[in-house]
Design brief:
Layout (H helix, E strand, L loop, with lengths): L1 H21 L17 H4 L5 H24 L3
Helix pairs in contact: 1-3
Length: 75
Amino acid sequence: MKTFLTIIFILVCIALSAVILAQQGKDAGLGAIGGIGDTYWGKNKSRSMEGKLVQITTILVVVFIVFSVILNLNF
């Protein structure tokens, strides 16, 4: 059982690394000062591919933490 959980944990780690590396940088530049960053694409970012990557990252981090706790329990 523990071997199966370890294999899934390793797959989650690899997927989390790949998703994090696929994301773009968060630098807004000087446009954020004057409000230029509030464009259509900036407001609807959750519907874009970048928004989906952020959601997937959040889910994978939660799964990572849960598996870390489970694997460190002595059962």
